[in-house]
Design goal:
The radius of gyration is 16 Å and the shape is flat. The protein is mostly helical and about 100 residues long. The chain has one domain. The longest helix is centred in the last third of the chain and has 23 residues, at about 70-95. The protein is built from five helices and no strands. Helices cover about 70% and strands about 0% of the residues.
């Protein structure tokens, strides 16, 4: 059981979408002693090309705006607007 737990934790801490990077996001976050919001922004930017693209960029923006104490209602409106713009751009590209 201990081996299974160790493997599960390792795969969650160092997933494949970070494997191609020289520095892991968690190491960067810890070395700069970043807080929750800034750490998450780094995480989402670092993985955007290998995982969720625009969705990860929007998540990073959400955490940066939250760090600036923008009201969450405003953050939600803004990120929804960004999601709509990204969808519209993807539709244009696929035509």
């Amino acid at each position: 059981m201990k081996i299974e737990l160790t493997q599960a934790v390792t795969s969650n801490v160092s997933p494949n979408h970070y494997a191609c990077h020289t520095v892991s996001p968690i190491d960067l976050i810890e070395s700069y002693n970043l807080n929750f919001n800034l750490g998450n922004a780094i995480k989402y930017v670092a993985r955007c090309r290998e995982k969720n693209g625009d969705e990860d960029i929007i998540k990073a923006i959400w955490y940066l705006l939250n760090e600036l104490n923008v009201p969450r209602e405003e953050i939600s409106k803004y990120t929804k607007h960004l999601e709509e713009k990204c969808r519209a751009n993807q539709e244009i590209v696929s035509e």
